[in-house]
Description:
By secondary structure, this protein is of the alpha+beta class. The chain has helices at residues 4-9, 11-18, 26-66, 70-107, 144-151, 156-163, 172-191, 206-211, 235-240, 298-315, 362-367, 397-407, and strands at residues 126-131, 154-155, 169-170, 196-197, 203-204, 223-224, 230-231, 247-249, 255-264, 283-293, 320-324, 336-344, 349-358, 370-372, 385-386, 388-396, 415-416, 430-431. The protein has two domains: 4-107, Serine-tRNA synthetase, tRNA binding domain (Helix Hairpins), CATH 1.10.287.40; 122-431, BirA Bifunctional Protein, domain 2. The chain contains twelve helices and 18 strands. Helix 3 (26-66) runs antiparallel to helix 4, helix 5 (144-151) packs across helix 12 (397-407) and helix 7 (172-191) packs across helix 12.
Amino acid sequence: MHDIRAIRENPEAYAAALSRRPTVDGASEVAAILKLDEVVRAAILKKGAAEQARNAKSKEIGKAKASKDEALAASLMAEVAAAKETIESAGAEEAEATKARDDLLARLPNVPHESVPKGADETGNKEVRRHGEPRKFNYAPKDHADIGEKLGMMDFEAAARMSGARFVVLRGQLARMERALAAFMLDVQTGENGYVEHAAPLMVRDEAAFGTGQLPKFTEDLFRTNTGHWLIPTAEVSLTNIYREQIVDAASLPARMTAATPCFRSEAGSAGRDTKGMIRMHQFIKVELVSITKPEDSEAEHERMTKCAEGILERLELPYRTVLLCTGDMGFGAVKTYDLEVWLPSQNTYREISSCSNCGDFQARRMDAKFRRAPVGAEKAARPEFVHTLNGSGLAVGRTMVAILENYQREDGKVDVPKALVPYMGGLEVIG
Length: 432
């Protein structure tokens, strides 16, 4: 959500910043918002003046009756009645214009950080660094789906019979690998990187989905239950909303949270993309990282979070690169985003396995999540400020399995287990 006061105070700068996103005409959006805002403010003034008139005339009615001036009393009562009508009409006008203005604000994406490169799509992204050398094969490397199916441990047909496309049944050692990867990632993030593990709801109400920016713009990307709840597309929704409508002490920040949860996505608009295999699923497990910080700390926290996600890939010895997303490829709520892309031999390219985003105060405004620099109860408590929120994948478990199967495959169809994962696989060193 955007700060209407900031838009009022410097509309040209705000319009220019929004226009760095190629899909947004900042000037027209800001003009439409300010036009509605003028209606809101005019209605507030009109209602306030009418309330003052009503209160003043109401006092005079008593005096007129006390002096038995019935004609004056009747005239004053008519003025009070007219003032009440004005209050009601101005109030309705204010409410309608406020809703229209706030709907426009809610559908606008976040303003990109000045360091984010301008670009129309992923071709405008900037590689920041890469780690590890892709393995050279003396045979044509197989796709992860072919590897898993030939092992008899990955069954897309069985999943399709019960659920349709974009689902999978994992068996035996691959089912264990999914569990092992989630446990390994959580142990690293909690034991070494200071994140606190959480078990949070998988279904949320409208307010929670709105708070993290899924609603109203991305309704089609979500699954909804018959109770009106939304299935979470990522644990970011549940973890970040722990702080909704809260005011916390500055001393408690940064707050770092993690969770391994199933995630549910409709993949609207992705028809024909990654239809084979486990790259783009309706249901998958992901270890999520969420940080809540003071405004001045969020940039450094963003770099730290990205390093925490990179560390998982490095321990698994998977080649990857880190990419700074451009304005045209960045997510709706992000100020700045790094994508981690892991090497997939079968595709001879890097594919996204994690996104780490700084959302600034964008989500906090939608959730009313604040902090206070002076402790609550102090002699003179500071005015509450909006926190900054960050989120990242640490990592997507299914895509990590995909990368392991492809990078650690053998020509005979078996798969070596990364050394870091062997203890989590009960000492198993080879799958097959």
